[in-house]
Amino acid sequence: MPPASDILSDSEIAQAYEDVRSDKSDTTWLVLKYVSATSDSLKLDKTGKGDIAEMAEVLGEDEAAYAYIRMTLGNDEYSERTKFAFVVWQGPGTKVMRKAKMSFQSGQVKQVIRTYAVEIQTSDKKELDAEQVTMKLRKAMGANYDRQGSGY
Fold first, then answer.
1. Does residue 150 lie within any of the structural domains?
2. What is the pLDDT of residues 22-63, one digit of tens each?
């Protein structure tokens, strides 16, 4: 397996990561995809300024990808918090060999995409529904004042 610096050599990846992290940028998500079906190298496939539903549209049913998204949580302007989610996507049609390699490669991707509240490994776009991801982020934050599903 090549080192992370080889599979993530695209300087655009680091810049896109910084843009998603920055409050000064209106970029809210990025998607990394493999250069080709046989390559282990990743490239920046797309970035966007929309929500998680927009990001999920970029993920193909037969492909593997990594995504990173900035989300704002809060009940009002005073309690707003910015949180980040890291997504390891394996579309239902992803080849077995690619899935096997991803378990190792996701660790390399995390050397570049380092800061996030939750990691979501999925092959089902329903798990990337804004409400579900928001709930996971709230759980990661600790206190949940919504009382929905909190068990109290």
1. no
2. 999 999 999 999 998 888 889 999 999 999 999 999 999 999
Residue 98 lies in a domain: yes
Domain count, the chain: 1
DSSP assignment of the chain: ---HHHHT--HHHHHHHHHHH-TT----EEEEEESSSS---EEEEEEESS-HHHHHHTS-TT-EEEEEEEEEE-SSTTS-EEEEEEEEEE-TT--HHHHHHHHHHHHHHTTTS---SEEEEES-GGGG-HHHHHHHHHHHHS---S-TTS--
> Which CATH number characterizes residue 86's domain?
3.40.20.10
Q: What is the pTM of this model?
A: 0.86
Give a yes or no: residue 145 inside a domain.
no
